């Protein structure tokens, strides 16, 4: 069986390169692969496009990555928050690009990318700035906006349990974007809380099948603050 | 029209708006809550309404905030507040969560608003002066929910009406708002524009009209909000 | 709490009407709502459009429904089999219409319908008869076929466990089309093997959230052969 | 060209084709099996290859047929045969199963064929005379898999070549087949057309060419199939 396990965060991140498009799982405090994002910051890459629900706040992991200058573009749904000072500075000084995407459209673009589809027709954004410049297509008398599939070179995700094949489960609402990101990346790297014996994850309850996971690393807490 | 000052001492509190709005949630509805003021609604929903709250981050059957000792970073609502699960809750991933939002199984969404237009257009993601804004899940949810209840102050911080004939702010979704709950009134959006149905105790239809930038029809049975 | 439980197959099928489009879950022998399909046949409706992977074989449930004259159109992926005699006769004598759909496209059309989307762009069928007459759309230099979302008035599905809210789990490969059909119907009726107390189905392992289930009925075996 | 009869006594058995094909499955590949002859492959895959078999009805990690007493109607493969799960298997619904098939995580599909063209076009769902046919999952799987191995007899029941310059039967998917395994030969589909690489023991390149309706290039290291 292919050995997908890596013993350290840097080893798990070996495949990430300058210029890559990278998905970051998580929503709020749930399912964010903090150790992987910190390890990515330490790797001192450049020209990254990152895709995440938020654009960092205060000096959290994403904000610190932005501040390091590794990122040229952010694709997200909710860039501004009380503490998104670093993103605001970089964006207003023209040092970072922003692509703003409605949250459901972002998740669906990833799912389409992971499903080999070119795009989909959504009613979301119709008549708003978000739909400007995008093809509009009528189906059965209703108008939809054509949104394109989104794939990444790398997905950095966080899961709860993993087995030797890379099957994953997520805790509670820590699932969020992680499964569709795992599907839509050329190479998926999972930070997990624990490894369990093969067969212990009920096949009926696998959240992300191992075929979508290229590498996993158990978070030993060495990147905790 | 002569100037009518905002009746500051008679405006409803945020909690009173939430309490009034909660009454309109029909039993067994599946309801999405926007971040901010809408989350107050959960305090006033009665157990027998058995509302199933949906949170955009994949929670179907969200329960009230937990005691401090049970807070879990893996279980927060869309506004990042700690929450719980009701018995019979289900967890799904983000794409499945928005399939629910757009797919016709969301009976109602309660959303904050910067502006609402008389045809139901909603603006709540970007102020005109801002270089960018925050969309989050609002566009998908406003588009997909069967009913959209806008919950907001009647005027903005500069005293300007938030209910207008047409939007002057960037739109979130078109023709989606079905009812507006403010600190002055309850107003339905009809095919014919705004219909003023209830006013806060002590506030007159004339006062509400003065602070609204569109023509209000007044319901024959105009009544006080039971706050 | 809304009472979704019905005490008999006929009571569970009350909402189905002449002319409805009806999804039938199942693939092979797994996840087929046999009691519901037999009950539907007994109801003696007309003008139905049915959507199912197969078009019946021998004198099984779907074949018997076809033979009863209730069906005007079949949408499926695999109409012919060694025993599909009844479908063949009806089709060749022009008494029934057929819409043939690739299996992945059929599942995805349902998922799109259940997700409020108008359609999607797929590479499947490109250059084949299946793509004839359908819009072709280029995205980033690649050509895709536009396939439309598919919804139904009624979904008849089969699940394993159910709770009071209608949350469902499926056994093994009996899951198949059932979850996407539940999502994409105006009214979903589930035939289940057993009811379990509320809270017994792990929220992390629900396969079909109860919000998609309008009615359920426990299969007591009275429609078994 | 003078008539060369089909070398009936030297044609490989279905099992021998499967045995040869199994060798080409790389360790840890995720492989989809079409119904019919392709399912024979599982008999010849070695444990150390650790192939993850995908079945279109939502099984990722399908194992061999069970003993009769463990057969379960809820666990059959795409051809409706009883199957099992390997340790670490996962079950998904139909839409997710075809997301996998189209989405780039299927290393190989082994499919039966009515015809294969020299540019890799595949026909396997409808004979020209039939009013309709059976598509099943073949179109999605042939379109999505990184490698498509066609597994078939070299000629049809009427003795007509199934490997042709262009398809004369309705197409399943274009330019998808990468390698063809028949009872006479192993032939790769290259940018330059067919490349004959192996022949069944006792069958010559000339015999294979005669029963093929397209020009075969012959590999410099043409060899016998190790059957």
Kindly describe this structure.
The complex is a heterotetramer, with two copies of chain A (225 residues) and two copies of chain B (227 residues). The radius of gyration of chain A is 18 Å and the shape is globular. In chain A, a hairpin with a 2-residue loop joins strand 7 and strand 8. Chain A has a single domain, classed as Glutaconate Coenzyme A-transferase, CATH 3.40.1080.10. In chain A, helix 5 (103-114) packs across helix 6 (178-184). Chain A has six helices and twelve strands. In chain A, the strands form two sheets. In chain A, strands 1, 2, 3, 4, 5, 9, 10, 11 and 12 form a nine-stranded mixed sheet that branches. With 225 residues, chain A is of the alpha/beta class. Chain A has helices spanning 9-12, 34-42, 61-67, 85-92, 103-114, 178-184, and strands at 5-6, 21-24, 48-51, 71-76, 97-100, 119-122, 136-139, 142-148, 152-162, 168-169, 185-195, 215-218. Chain B has 227 residues and is an alpha/beta fold. Chain B has one domain (8-220): Glutaconate Coenzyme A-transferase (3-Layer(aba) Sandwich). Helices cover 14% and strands 29% of the residues of chain B. Chain B has helices at residues 14-23, 94-102, 138-144, 205-210; strands at residues 30-33, 52-55, 59-63, 84-91, 108-111, 115-117, 122-123, 147-152, 163-164, 177-182, 185-190, 193-199, 216-224. In chain B, the strands form two sheets. Chain B has a ten-stranded mixed sheet with strand order 4-3-2-1-5-8-10-11-12-13. In chain B, strands 7-6-9 form a three-stranded mixed sheet, with no helix packed on it. In chain B, helix 2 (94-102) packs parallel to helix 3 (138-144). Chain B is globular and about 55 Å long. The mean pLDDT of chain B is 96. Chains in contact: A-B, A-C, A-D, B-C, C-D. The A-B interface holds A 27-31, 77-81, 91-92, 98, 100-105, 107-108, 110-111, 122-130, 171-180, 207 and B 55-59, 72-76, 80, 85, 91-95, 97-98, 101-102, 121, 126, 131-141, 143-144, 170-174.
């Amino acid at each position: 069986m292919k050995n997908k396990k890596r013993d350290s965060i840097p080893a798990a991140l070996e495949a990430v390169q300058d210029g890559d498009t990278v998905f970051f799982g998580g929503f709020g405090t749930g399912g964010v692969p903090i150790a992987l994002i910190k390890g990515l910051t330490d790797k001192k890459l450049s020209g990254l496009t990152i895709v995440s629900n938020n654009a960092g706040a205060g000096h959290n992991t994403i904000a610190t990555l932005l501040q390091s200058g590794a990122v040229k573009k952010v694709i997200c749904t909710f860039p501004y928050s009380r503490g998104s000072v670093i993103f605001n500075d970089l964006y207003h000084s023209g040092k970072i690009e922003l692509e703003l995407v409605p949250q459901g459209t972002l998740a669906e673009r990833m799912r389409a990318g992971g499903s080999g589809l070119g795009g989909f027709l959504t009613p979301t954004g119709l008549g708003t700035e978000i739909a400007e410049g995008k093809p509009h297509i009528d189906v059965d008398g209703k108008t939809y906006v054509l949104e394109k599939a989104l794939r990444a070179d790398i997905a950095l995700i966080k899961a709860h349990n993993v087995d030797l094949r890379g099957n994953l489960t997520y805790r509670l609402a820590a699932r969020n974007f992680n499964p569709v990101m795992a599907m839509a990346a050329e190479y998926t790297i999972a930070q997990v809380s624990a490894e369990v014996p093969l067969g212990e994850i009920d096949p009926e309850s696998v959240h992300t099948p191992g075929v979508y996971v290229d590498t996993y690393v158990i978070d030993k807490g060495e990147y905790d603050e | 029209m002569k100037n009518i000052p905002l009746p500051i001492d008679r405006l409803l509190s945020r909690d009173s708006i939430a309490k009034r709005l909660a009454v309109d949630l029909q039993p067994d509805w599946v309801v999405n809550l926007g971040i901010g003021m809408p989350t107050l609604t959960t305090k006033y929903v009665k157990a027998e309404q058995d509302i199933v709250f949906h949170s955009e981050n994949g929670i179907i059957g969200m329960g009230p905030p937990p005691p401090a000792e049970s807070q879990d970073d893996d279980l927060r609502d869309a506004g990042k507040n700690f929450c719980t699960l009701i018995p019979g809750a289900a967890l799904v991933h983000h794409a499945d969560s928005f399939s629910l939002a757009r797919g016709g199984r969301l009976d109602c969404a309660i959303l904050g608003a910067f502006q609402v237009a008389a045809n139901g257009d909603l603006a709540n993601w970007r102020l005109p002066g801002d270089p960018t804004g925050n969309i989050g899940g609002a566009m998908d949810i406003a588009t997909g929910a069967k009913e959209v209840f806008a919950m907001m102050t009647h005027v903005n911080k500069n005293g300007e009406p938030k209910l207008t004939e047409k939007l002057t702010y960037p739109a979130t979704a078109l023709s989606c708002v079905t009812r507006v709950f403010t600190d002055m009134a309850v107003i339905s959006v009809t095919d014919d524009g705004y219909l003023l149905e209830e006013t806060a105790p002590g506030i007159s239809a004339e006062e509400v009209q003065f602070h609204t930038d569109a023509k209000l029809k007044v319901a024959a049975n105009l009544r006080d909000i039971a706050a």
